[in-house]
Design a protein that fits this description.
Number of strands: 0
InterPro entries: DUF1468 (IPR009936)
Keywords: Membrane, Transmembrane, Transmembrane helix
Mean pLDDT: 84
Largest sheet: none
Protein name: DUF1468 domain-containing protein
Amino acid sequence: MLRKRLFSILLLLIMAAYWLINLGYRPNTRLLPLFFMTITIIFQILAVIGDFKPEFGKKFDVDMFGEERFEQDGPKSTKTPFVMIWMVAFFIAILLIGFIPSIAIFYFIFMQMYHKKPLLQSIAIPLSTAFIIFVVFELLMDFQLFRGLLFGAHVSL
């Protein structure tokens, strides 16, 4: 129960940090991300409250697969620290080197560590994904994605 609470709080803090980073974008660039992040943060606040007050959380509980299945296939507690470390590292990478390079690097690491894909495939897919994100968001939609503190970006609070 403690791990679930810590994970929910960490997730809320990361979402709040992303929300604050979005304030540094141009108004037309930040509008859509702020809208969705605000909704997501509201739901995460409800989830955190539900973690601390189970009677509150039961009001919003949706049993999609049946109680028995959740207990059998529920998250393994040994994976929780790894997921938390992965999320924090990804956030720090975005903060330092920017959004697009972080996606490519973490996608590469994931394909090598988890899927054990060939090296060429593990390089080509993350690079093409980063390229597509760049073309769609930066060029076509004129969004300014976060560049990272090491590349001259600044965080406005």
